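Readers of this paper often ask what the protein records in our data store actually look like. Such a record has a labelled line for the sequence and another for the backbone structure tokens. The tokens are whole numbers drawn from a learned vocabulary of local backbone shapes. We quote a single record here, exactly as it is kept in our systems:
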Amino acid sequence: MKLILIRRYKNKDYIRGELYIENPECKICDTLENTAIHASAGEYDLSYQLCKQLGWKFLKLCNTYCQNCKFFGVPNQNKALPRFCPMLQRGNGVHNRFDGRIVVGKYLIRGAVIHTADAFNKIKFYVGLAVEMKQEMKLEIIE
């Protein structure tokens, strides 16, 4: 399974993009990233794994090293991660997020998305199918 993230708009605060599955005709959702810290354009392996800090399973770019991340406190989705860790995640914005998260949802206004749980669940459905069929998971980020 291959996800394609096409970055459409960038300003000093955020990057707005669109996430597709397999080809640019099958849009899943919109994305937001923090301009100050985000994953570079390119192709990444993806893994669906539990985040010790947030207490949920997320689709992470595999160049992150969870084993080096020490648990600190009760898992909370609004907690800032202690290091750069790009992952697809639900949420409503990327301001004050300096850990490389890619927030998914439906673009609403500058720097905010809505219906993030719906978008995340749709991605989880496709990931579940890929895991069940033992497919490789990739993310291609295009500027």
